[in-house]
Please model this.
Amino acid sequence: MTAYFDPRWSKFHGANREAMDEAQFWTLIEATKQASGGDVDAQMKLLDKELYQLTPEELLGFDRILAELLMRAYSYDLWAACYIFHGGCSDDAFEYFRSGLILQGKAVFDNALRDPETLVELNLSDDDLDVQTLYSATWDPYKEKTGEDLPANFMYPDTWPGELKGERWSTDEELDEKYPKLSIKSKNWSLTPELVSEDFWRRRGELDFYREHVAKPTQLPLWESENE
Model:
């Protein structure tokens, strides 16, 4: 489980809040993304090196902000995006998906929260939004610097993971109607006849998208399998 900030730990309350703010958090993410050339595995290795340079208070601050961002992204809209992207979505898969969004940087993260269909503009592989190591990235650096594990209440707060925000969905057909671009661009999604019909896109006023991404049988989906 992720190390999450809980203000009941008065020993740490305040110190980590001043030690790192959200702007500094995003600076770390953006710098490692740029230096890695967009390779997520390389980015995590670079981020790991950066985290070892932080103080214990900064590491706690990093975890607090990470938790807040993961909870901010805990929505039905993004769960739907993950569900379409991977052809299904468990609790763990959704956390890894949100972690992947965070590693893509503030602009991508904020845009995805506003409209998950903005993800169709990106060239992402399956692994880019399946990041399993971000939530635990501070554990080893923190233990090396303090000789202690992260406090238990950082790891298991009563508020985690929060309440799912937004409008609940229940069927694949609802997702096709609400997120048609994501559905079209994902290899892991079974396309319905309605979704590939010209009339569907005409009703939405998006014939340009239909002509470029639906009508062309040779058009590659946005997310290409790593095994191909």
